[in-house]
Amino acid sequence: MILNQQGFDLWAEGYDQTVQLSEENHQYPFAGYKDILNRIFNEVMQVPTSTVLDIGFGTGVLTAKLYEHGHSIYGFDFSSKMITIAQTKMPQANLIEWDLSNGLPAALMNKQYDAIISTYALHHFSDEQKVTYITQLLHQLTPNGKILIGDIAFQTRAQLEQCRLDSKDYWDDDEFYFVHEELKTFLQDHCQLQFYPISHCGGVFVISNCARG
Hints:
The chain is α/β, with parallel strands linked by helices.
């Protein structure tokens, strides 16, 4: 099922509970969800009071924690109801309603960010779109900035196919999941990329600009 804006609006109230159920049962798609968010949280916390851009922030589960610790939060999501929920948690955050597939909103392109984060949003993009998106985001980083992506992800294509077989009754064929060995090949000339598997179907990518000099 492809979730459009209306679908996400309808799902907004129950989204966090849906995630929790999948995670507690250690099932695709959200196995390891909290550990993935914690990994990104700890990465961002290495730079005090940093400037953070969250792409597809949903109900603000992760960014609200960063907001509480004094980070400046910018972000966009295409669900107005999720934005409303997130804004109540982060009244001073700069949150915009925007379709992720249209790239970055112009209002957010005149800044550079210490961390650009995205959790469980970019799997709606094809692999080609992901590469284009990540390449564009690299230009928005501060010199030591990082892109941190937590999502449904696999080290190899074989692991993805195994998960598809194991989860065939509820696998979503309309989504495009990250495969580290393939993404690394696509991006090898553009950036430094590391992948940290967290569960059998999820992990964290840490991406930074290539070392200068």
